[in-house]
Write a structure and sequence with these properties.
Blueprint lengths: L1 H25 L1 H12 L9 E5 L6 E4 L18 E3 L2 H6 L3 E2 L3
Parallel strand pairs: 2-4
Antiparallel strand pairs: 1-2, 1-3
Length: 100
Amino acid sequence: MLDVLLVAAIIVLFFIASSLVVTILAGDTVQATITQIVAKRPGPPECVIKGNISIETGEKIYHLPGMKDYDRTRINERYGERWFCTEEEAIKAGWRKAGR
């Protein structure tokens, strides 16, 4: 059990250190965006595409970072929503790109 906690602590420290490096090299805005993305989702840091299912239509729509509704879109895997690492992966799974 101690080994699992140690590994988890190392991973957290890695993300904190990565955020500090980004802040130094790219500025506060980029660091804040990366921190928000990592904090809100599980999985590999490169998988930041949100696969959302419309409540109104049931349509599968994916959102890229920087798109209008990206920050307010929440992914709930219980309802079939998911994260994608590439647009190609999202399209192959039957999702379409959000219009805004």
